[in-house]
Amino acid sequence: MADNKIPLKFRLYTAKYKTKMFFKSVKSKLIGGKKMEGFNLKGKKAIVFGIANDQSIAWHIAKGLNDAGCQIAVAYQERVEQLVKPLLGMLNNPLAEKCDVVDDVLLTEFFGKVEKEFGKVDFLIHSIAFAKKEHLQGKYYDTDRRGYQVAQEVSSYSLAELTRRVMPIMNDNGSILAMTYYGSEKVAPNYNVMGVAKAALEASVRYLANDTGEKGIRVNAISAGPIKTLAASGIGDFQKMLDYAKEKAPLKRNVDADDVANLAVFLCSDMSKNITGQVIYVDAGYCIMAV
Ligand SMILES: NC(=O)c1ccc[n+]([C@@H]2O[C@H](COP(=O)([O-])OP(=O)(O)OC[C@H]3O[C@@H](n4cnc5c(N)ncnc54)[C@H](O)[C@@H]3O)[C@@H](O)[C@H]2O)c1
User: Residue 29 has what pLDDT?
Assistant: First the structure.
């Protein structure tokens, strides 16, 4: 898109964001990353799908894996390029390429590039989801056919697609992770078609774990409590979800993306070598409550 076609509001936001990320990057170089005590992923390589900006769960996971010694290949959507590029300086020697899970040409190019540059990889992080905004509010039965298809294709089917593409270049004993939410099991008002897509995603995790198990490759999902991100801002009354989760959870607090990243590093490490096909909660205990 030509610069003059990008709304002024977004251009101003991008300029401010780039400055903020520049200083963050300098600080990160001077102080170094947060050390993940007990987790040594030196020499490991990970593919991360789903970084849109510095709030993304995928970004926190990428940084956590990077700080544990892992090299990262970032697959980002073209529309968020301006927000992803300033983050790359905070990673050690990353590979970064445009990709979209509904575009076979871009997928083939991306995996080809990863194979050429990395050879084999050890981890795949699937931290992506999409549904039309109008389908994340009101009645679930108002979802139209195309809206249902797109939510399933991007948020659920893509895990099988990415697993199939990564298998030929994945080392034995690798780890694949997907992100999910409790709205797959119980009704979360407004979550609607995404809850249905997450149910399919969680079932996929189990089938994929069975498919990949003979190579020692594990597939798990992290079910996170609500976190303010770009994707979350599309869900109707999201602030209410945050407030309610905090009030009802035994720990009386919300979770953040670093909580998810810590679990992701554990699930990539050998410390979790016999955990597969699971949905593991990072929700301050919210899901154990009946009332
Ligand atoms: N934020 C929450 O409250 C929360 C809670 C539980 C689970 N999750 C899940 O975590 C994951 C990450 O979401 P997030 O909250 O970090 O938001 P986010 O907006 O930062 O990340 C969503 C990502 O999906 C990517 N994406 C969308 N369509 C794509 C496509 N066609 N091809 C490739 N990438 C595509 C976007 O570029 C973006 O990077 C999602 O699966 C989401 O459902 C989020």
Answer: 74
- Supply the CATH number for residue 141's domain: 3.40.50.720
First to last CA, the chain: 49
Ligand 1 pocket test, candidate residues 48, 53, 76, 77, most atoms within 8 A of CB: 77
Annotate 159-189 with b (16+ C-beta within 10 A) or e (fewer). Answer: bebbbebbbebbeeebbbbbbbbbbbeeebe
For residue 239, which amino acid is it?
Answer: Q
Task: Indicate the number of domains in the chain.
Answer: 1
Q: Which residues are catalytic?
A: 181, 191
Residue 21, exposed/middle/buried by CB under 10 A (0-12, 13-18, 19+)? buried
Q: What are the residue ranges in the chain where pLDDT is below 50? A: none
Please check whether residue 279 lies inside any domain of the structure: yes
Ligand 1 contacts CB of residue 245 (under 6 A): no
Secondary structure (3-state) at 170 = strand
CA distance 181 to 184: 6
Print the domain residue range for 257: 41-288
| CA nearest neighbour of 171 among 270, 44, 256, 7 | 44
pLDDT value of residue 34 = 66
Closest ligand 1 atom to residue 99 Cα is 33
